[in-house]
Amino acid sequence: MSERVDQFCSNLREQLNSVEHRLESVKSKLSSAPRETREALRSKLDAARAEIDTRRAEVADAKVRWEQRVADKKAETSQMIDEWKEKREQKKLERRAEKSEQYAAAAIVLAASAVEEAELATLEAVEARLLAEEALS
What we know:
By secondary structure, the protein is mainly α.
């Protein structure tokens, strides 16, 4: 593989590892949440909300890039791409590769965002259940 492809794959692996670590963190928080005090749970909720807020612009940008690539993919046909290859239209093929790389990176950002949202939703659900049980006591 070319150095550029190697670098791209390495970057995506790093991002996916980050998502994987985030999922592990969510699982850990979920398993300990029922034993925590409401104050500790509230602190985790606040931290999760702050993390989501700080990444909101990045996620919005990734969503725009992702949607643009989906539209571009619909416009591209395999026949068109074959013509570019046959005519050796390097700039068009290069631009398509760049867009595809941006799409992959945007998809990973959106996946990471989904994990963060899942963490927040999980913590909110645990908090709601604790409040409901306190009301019964």
